[in-house]
Amino acid sequence: MGLNEKIIFIGILGVGALVGVVSYTIFLDLPPTPENTKSIYRQDLPPPPTAQASSKAESKVDPATVKADATLTILEGAATQGSPDYDPKELSVKKGNIIKVENADSLPHTVTNGAGPNDPNSAKIFDTSLIMGGEAGIVQTEEIDAGEYTYYCTVHPYMTGTLKIE
Predict the structure, then answer these.
(1) What residue spans define the domains of the chain?
(2) CB–CB of 113/125 below 8 Å?
(3) Neighbours of 36 (CB within 10 A)
(4) Of the residues 37, 69, 86, 109, which has the fewest C-beta atoms closer than 10 A?
């Protein structure tokens, strides 16, 4: 590269830097407003799912005050793949029973019907939603038909178990 090319190259870099500094200075204090965020490329996000849509059997009561007919425990360390996760692994209850789900782990978990996140029927029968570490949730079975249902944790899909409703 000759001397002239080097001078031209440095000049182009200098002009680019100058344009960048001027643009930054002009737009620094311009906050986004509805007027200056309109674009043909902008798409609004869909509204977050409501608790109603996630399950008919989801609890609307406080787990601390309800008398449960059965307890399902999410064991401490369940988030580590290969560790024991749900106790009991297979739970049998009668239709209409209330199942209290206690999360003994420090991480959030769920009890959601289905074989995993790709199951098209996932969360259509029951779903506790997120149960934070040390807290509890409820699965009500009065609207669930008798049968055997696999369930999993939506946060850690390798955590699985079976619920049998008689």
Answers:
(1) 3-30, 56-166
(2) yes
(3) 9
(4) 37
If you ran DSSP here, which 8-state letter would residue 35 be given?
G
Identify whether the C-beta of residue 141 lies closer than 8 Å to the C-beta of residue 99. Answer: yes
DSSP state of 58: B
Cα–Cα distance, 27 to 48 (Å, whole number): 32
pLDDT tens string 41-83:
666 667 765 544 344 444 456 777 888 999 999 999 999 999 9
Q: Residues near 79 by Cβ (< 8 Å), separated by ≥ 6?
A: 105, 107, 109, 155, 156, 159
pLDDT digits (tens, 9 = 90+) for 86-138: 999 999 999 999 999 999 999 999 999 999 999 999 999 999 999 999 999 99
- For the domain made up of 56-166, the CATH class stated in words is mainly beta
Q: What's the pTM value of the predicted model, to 2 decimals?
A: 0.64
Which position has the higher pLDDT, 14 or 50?
14
Cβ atoms of residues 74 and 103 within 8 Å: yes
Question: What residues have CB less than 8 Å from 166, skipping those under 6 apart?
Answer: 92, 93, 94, 95, 146
Cα separation of 92 and 148, whole Å?
9
Could you give the 3-state DSSP secondary structure of residue 11? Answer: helix
